[in-house]
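Dear colleague,

Following up on Tuesday's group meeting, I ran the structure prediction for the three-component complex that the binding team flagged. I've pasted the input sequences exactly as they went in, so you can double-check that nothing got truncated or mislabelled along the way. The structure tokens for the whole assembly follow below. Feel free to forward this to whoever is handling the docking comparison.

Inputs:
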Amino acid sequence: MTVRLAAALPTHAEAVVVNSATPLWYITRATGLVAMVLLTISMVCGLLSSVGYQRPGLPRFVTLGLHRNASVLAVAFTAVHIVTTVTDGYAHIPVQDVFIPFISAYRPLWLGLGTVTSDLLLALTITSLLRSRMSYRTWRAVHWTAYACWPVALLHGLGTGSDTPVRWVLLLTLLCVAIVTALAGWRIAVGWPGRPIARVAGAVALVLALIAAGAWLSAGPLKPGWARRAGTPPALLNHAAGLLAPRTAQVAAHIGQTAARDA
Amino acid sequence: MPSRAVRMRLLPETPQLTLDEHLSTYGPPPFADTACDTAGAAPLIVAVEQSGLAGRGGAGFPAGRKMRAVAEAGRRGGPFRSQVGTVVVANGAESEPASGKDRLLLRRAPHLVLDGIVLAAEAVGATRAYLCVHDEAAPLRDAVTSRERAGLNRVPVQVVDVPGGYVASQETALVGLLNGTGPLPAFIPPRPSERGVRRHPTLVQNVETLANIALIARHGPEWFREAGTPSAPGTALVTVSGAVARPGVYEAELGTTIETLLDWAGGFAEPPQAVLAGGYFGGWLPLPAARRVHLTDQALRAAGAALGPGVLIVLPESSCPLAETARVTGYLASQSAGQCGPCRNGLPALADALGQVAFGRAADDLLRWTHQLLGLVSGRGACHLPDGTAGLVGSALTTFADDLRYHATRGPCGRAARLPVLPLPAPAAPPAPPAPPARPDPRSRPEALA
Amino acid sequence: MSRAEDGRRPRPRVLRVNPVACQGHGMCIELLPELIAADPWGYPLITPGPVPDRLLPLAQRAVNSCPTLALLLTSPQ
């Protein structure tokens, strides 16, 4: 039991490395998760729309309406997520990091993916609002980037998110991945009947992406030391460790007491 | 192909191949030398309007009205378009299998057509012109070069090869070909006269219409009206084929009876039963009643057919009219560009149904389904392929009701086995697949959204 | 929304389908069954004639819902 507790300690410490005192950080995490769920719902409805799925109780205009509403809500939650991230001064993420990817001091790659997501969401929103005023081909070309938007958002969440190792968050994320993967597989199986090469290539790409993501997940965010490897600035790492030192000592003392009792 | 002179206007006795021969017969093209941005329309446009010349490509739209529309659209211009940036497209891509008049005209009197192109170009303020043909482009390019050397081409004329296919010569399909998006019919609006080649107002006219314009420019509208009838003035080139002794292209005044034309063509080669008037978008006229019908669009439509591009095919008694129509319907169905669902699905279904009627047994519900299909395809495509096909089939079912009854009760008549009379291009190849990669595969159903 | 300020009758509007853009998704058929039916292959069959005033908002909604912008509400030509 002693060994198990000790092993549990580092993970728990890593999980709360960036522990800002203000409630903004909690709002950032919460809105990020909700945005992920809403984006997943939007993807699900979009995929169902594109394969022409309909049932007597689920006409196609309902699926399309759900897709549009879920997308709007996802954009709204993403906007709040961005605002709280920027206004929460703990990690020093300035406004330009919101629009220009990969220049941030805080986990540049993983935060940058979030920037890419929000840029794509912006393009998708603007083109869809102006859909009747632009050529259908242009709108459709931009809308295809939605297929990139969702996985990028998820990678951002897994890479930046401090809640990744938390069990229910991980399960929720995997559930989203499972649903979208299944539907994407169905979409590939049903679409492009005249082009078997494209379909096989799509299916292979899907499987490879899943394997790669799974491998990265288990070797990356789920392993200890991820915060440092992901690019959290050292100042923040030390600060968090400092915050935790008294708590660590507390727990160590408790372990010592328990061990003494057991002995 | 022999042709006979009857107040010959368009078809000279001997081919006028060289420029010198043309100039010595007709004289030089009378360029107006007035700038196109004067307050009123160019004098040629007024003359063509007064002449009452209707398009000879099959649609019969008044040529003067089209020219005026293009000229005005060109004058309106736009923020980025120069005032005189209109385009002329001469349609010599004759895809009607039973029509040979455009080919003959381009072979016999190419300079008359080219005169018409440059005169019309001047009148509508065009800076470019295209002459679209399915074949024999090389001699036409030579003709263009010889005119350039003589200074007779005030606008550059480019001869363009059009791939085969029934719908490739449709007005908007030609514009699409020139724009690089493929010879596919487009949804209207906008009409080519508003926005066509590279978004410029475009005048698309059949080559026979342009040849007539060249003659009107020389002789005036009153001269043009000396032939034909008051409501259908002028002459038309008519291709007569089928069971006649001398099939060929004949120039006839509009209003001539079909009987006269058939006599010129040497009378019947075998006992006839009906005439297909107007090509494959036309209709069947039973003989001997058809002989009295006058060759105008109005009279032919009243009789259940059409003038179209001036095509008359005589069907002999020894042919099965339902089998012939079924074969043509199958060909037309294969010519669908595949863009519009009702055409892509409905025409093959119609061809199947008619095939069963002609070569199998015509059950009652099959006939009902056929009639239902006629209503389901008409007017629901971007071009007139579905309507024209439905018109042909409907006309056959009405005109040959007796044969239909025979087929329904006794099965196919033996005549279906004889050699086909209605010509089909060999091989009947579908049009080229759509070029732009953004367009989804038209043969997939259901269509994916993203 | 369709009435002019002075209470005059609005311009007549008709529904048209761009058959090239139409891919047969069928949203319009679901949303405006009063005027649009399905043919045997899932493509829209529009009742000819002007759209009744009371159906104009629904017709506009159907136009907005078309995934390929194939349904049009225009003046009669």
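The radius of gyration of chain C is 13 Å.

Cheers,
M.
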